[in-house]
Amino acid sequence: MANSVQATKRARQAEKHRQHNAGMRAAMRTTVKKVLSAVEAGDKEAATAAFRVAQSSLDNMARKGLIAKNKAARNKSRINARIKAMA
Description:
The chain is mainly alpha-helical. Helices cover 85% and strands 0% of the residues. Residues 1-27 are annotated as: Disordered.
């Protein structure tokens, strides 16, 4: 599809970045799911520990531009509310 060397290189780079970003996004989702599964199980200590990891992951993804800053804040707020509701 690309007609020039430059366009071919950009297509290669775009695919490489897409795969990297997909992996990072999947890792972020996994950290969030670990918190939610701990909340469902009723284990507040595990949920709190997992939340620290998820919070860091969400902030990193927002800083790198994989998700919007407000989405990270919204997710953290909702997860934290679920943890606090366990008490």
